[in-house]
Amino acid sequence: MTAPVIVVCLLLILAYIFDITASKTKIPSVILLFLLGWGVRQSTDFLGTPMPDLNKILPVLGTVGLVLIVLEGSLELELYRSKFPFVGKMTLISLLPMLALSAGLAYAFHYLEDTPLRTGLINAIPFAVISSAIAIPSAQNLTANNKEFVTYESSLSDIFGVILFNFIVLNSAINARSFGIFFVDLIVILLISITMTLGLAYLLSKIKHPVKFVPIILIIVLIYEVSKEYHLPALIFILLFGLALGNLDEIKKSRIIQRLQPKILDKEVHKLKELTGEISFLIRALFFLVFGYLLDTKDLLNPETITWALAIVLFIYSLRIIFLKLFKLPLQPLLFIAPRGLITILLFLTIPVAQKIEVANKSLTIQVIILTALIMMFGMLFHQKPVDSAATPEVEESTSFEEELSDKLE
What we know:
Blueprint: H1 2-25, H2 29-47, H3 57-76, H4 84-112, H5 117-124, H6 132-138, H7 144-170, H8 176-206, H9 213-229, H10 235-246, H11 248-251, H12 255-259, H13 262-294, H14 297-300, H15 303-326, H16 342-349, H17 362-381, H18 393-396, H19 400-405
């Protein structure tokens, strides 16, 4: 029993080294984790070491990781009244490319693979979602504006992707009734979000026991899972909870917040941020290590899907160029930070068996994830973070939208 513990500890220490050196090497830690997990698989196969079935553990790690990553990102975001236009534009730039890519890929599946349009859309959505699990850690070496952009974009992409996927899967017909039910679900999750945010904030400020943050995180994951069981857009709760706690200065004048002792609560929120970051790293590292372990070389090199994978990746970055130019944003380095990853895998695993299509298989999913991660890696390798943003031509030529991005720093 000692040997597995030693191996896991060594693997996680290596994952930590990958994480802290990523800003210097410009190599996304996810690629190294994939390779590390794959290497462990080759070693265990060569040595004939018996291993448990890790396929069942992957969705669990992915779900907990998704919750923690969105929570971690939302706690870092600053939201005040003057930033509302910026948030509105970020919503559009997160949603529109995803809808365009999903629709385009769904039609391709429909006409080239002779699948029903709804089935094609269900299989297309996972490829349209940017992975915050990969994008946010990879943006740590960017300027504050670009880092904020990546955090908002990838977090909202995760949320919109899950909502859209569940909406299409749960509704066999898209009509006024299905939109009505969705609107009711949205109202319900907003009410739950407000109620539970106040309740958890109260617990955070009042609990005197030395162990308080782990129960809070467990309650958050529990609310997320229960909401999912009732087909509610549960990630909205995570986002709103994180934004509320991360922006106490903006709402501390409220009578309700005053009762929660905002000064004490603010200190506790800082501790929660630190713990969330620690646990998020642990779960994320385990997820990608396990996924790398489960990688099959024949899936990665499958010639039957590589053409589709290259076409999808080309489509992803073509649309990204169009929308970045449309919103007058710099292509460098934002063009390259559009990786697919954790959420793509989770959605792929939850596609109903009756709705799966042959071409959108495990091989295609793996190839798209690896290709987008490699593109991000090479894009980051050639990007230099400006030392003085005021002297950078990219900033001097900034548009009004980019000026909104820098409002936080002014």
